[in-house]
Amino acid sequence: MKKLLYVTANPKGIEKSKGLKIGEAFLEAVQEECKNIEINRIDLFNYEFPQMDADLVSARGKLAGYGYSLDQLSTPEREKISKMHALANEFITYDSYVFVSPMWNFNSPAVLKAYIDNLFISGKTFVHTANGPKGLLTDKKAIHIQTRGGKYIGTPMQELESGDRYLKIALCFLGIKVYDTVVAEGFDLNPLKTPEILKQGIINARIAAKQFANELIQI
Ligand SMILES: Cc1cc2nc3c(=O)[nH]c(=O)nc-3n(C[C@H](O)[C@H](O)[C@H](O)COP(=O)(O)O)c2cc1C
Fold first, then answer.
1. I need a surface site. Which of 20, 66, 140, 205 has the fewest CB within 10 A?
2. CA 147, CA 78: separation in Å to the nearest integer?
3. Pocket of ligand 1, candidates 12, 105, 159, 200: which has the most ligand atoms within 8 Å of its Cβ, to mutate?
4. From the CB of 102, is ligand 1 less than 6 Å away?
């Protein structure tokens, strides 16, 4: 049985979001290829998770930097870092991850970065070695489905894209080297073209899903 975590960062809901529609098509196609799969969902706009606030930053520093034990932390620090570790422990149990987010101001919605912040735990998801940091989440696959209002691919705007780039950097740092992206872009340039761009996005997602599922079976 393979496990897939489907993480969405879009408050619009599936009726209004093109990305969420493309994401569902992706999941459907994965399930057609890989029958023996458990899928769990996290909708980051309706999900409570630790934020990197003063308590969490302090707890992180005390545990990692100063060798404190959990019982030496304040109650809020202990509660928040325990939730952060629980989130990371759960994340680690998956073989594969699908992230769906729109481009917002060249990046992803902030909730996605806030969620990813919970995964960086030295000794759990990465370690420091004599040769530099090493990700521990190996043998896992991730894909990012990103919708964009403008056009970036093959244009001077390409360099401004920071959401997909960041997600790839973060997950690769943690050891998830197999990373793909499905992009559907140009939605806001001409609303009449929305159905066409959406249709192509769904086709691309289904193609990517087949490959994703086949690689997943081999993990
Ligand atoms: C707050 C906000 C910021 C946005 N910033 C960008 C941007 O920097 N570049 C871009 O191409 N589109 C931007 N857009 C447009 C969306 O990326 C675009 O409408 C996309 O198709 C939304 O996908 P969805 O239907 O899945 O939500 C922005 C939209 C919102 C709401």
1. 66
2. 38
3. 105
4. yes
The two counts, helices (H) then strands (E), for the chain are 6, 7
Structure tokens at 180: 């793909």
- The 3-state DSSP class for residue 10 equals coil
CA–CA dist 182, 168 (Å, integer): 13
Q: Torsions phi, psi of 161, nearest 5?
A: -65, 120
**Residue 8, strand partner residues:** 43, 100
Domain ranges of the chain: 2-218
Q: Separation of 202 CA from ligand 1 center, angstroms?
A: 18
Nearest CA residue ID for atom 31, ligand 1: 104
CATH architecture, domain 2-218 = 3-Layer(aba) Sandwich (3.40)
**Tens digit of pLDDT for each residue in 96-143?**
999 999 999 999 999 999 999 999 999 999 999 999 999 999 999 999
CA distances from 149 to 161, 166, 184 (A): 12, 19, 9
Give CA–CA dist 157/179, Å, rounded: 22
The verdict on the CB of residue 107 being under 6 Å from ligand 1 is no
